[in-house]
Amino acid sequence: MLLRQLFDRETWTYTYLVADEKSRESLLIDPVVERMPCYRQLLKELKLKLAYALDTHVHADHVTALGSLREEYGCETLINDHALMNCASKKITDGDQIPLGELAFTSIYTPGHTDDSMCLYVKADEEGYLFTGDTLFIRGCGRTDFQNGDAGQLYDSLQTLLDNYPEDTWVYPAHDYKGWTRSTLGEERRFNPRLQVADKSAFIELMNNLDLPNPKFMDVAVPANLSCGKSRPTSTD
């Protein structure tokens, strides 16, 4: 498996380019529209065919490149079936498989940060990889105070990941604000402050009292992303 972790400095977003080395089919996870030149360069240099572009949820902090990638490469665009985005090629549900050459990614519905959040799991070369979106960060987790977020649901989603995947599973989040690049589930279980709570009630209290400012691009990003990043939806009033 070929894996590249790409970073957008303006929004602290990680995008992942994952490919099956034999078939050269590839997947872009959480692409940012301003980074299109980077994606073009890598796809060309590495001789990859873009089969899919996927968002782990409707983002509030950057504009997605789903629409631009589908327009340019004819790839299939994917989003969770709870998302209000109706422009994606396909909506996928919990447990759906995404084939990529000899690889098979499993979608995991993980609501809490938003009501349409999901993670992806793939096993390659005897190692497991979790692309956790905004559900689980390195030493943190996604906020739960907008886009139908729910702290109780996020607690349950985090427990699902911790209970169902080995501790040596690699964790690749959609954001990092401190320069961390990857972790493991076991490491997060032991050291992530958001997971060091006594119970679900304590987690809900912690999350409900974070008092965070809104993402600075939220007013632009959410409307644009509901149309796959190509334009803002227009009012029909």
From TrEMBL:
Keywords (A to Z) from UniProt: Acetylation, Dioxygenase, Iron, Metal-binding, Oxidoreductase, Transit peptide
Record flagged with keyword Iron: yes
Cofactors that this protein relies on: Fe(2+)
Pfam families for the chain: Lactamase_B
Domain Metallo-beta-lactamase: 12-175
GO biological process per UniProt: glutathione metabolic process; hydrogen sulfide metabolic process
GO-annotated molecular function: metal ion binding; sulfur dioxygenase activity
Assigned protein family: Belongs to the metallo-beta-lactamase superfamily. Glyoxalase II family.
Name this polypeptide is given: MBL fold metallo-hydrolase
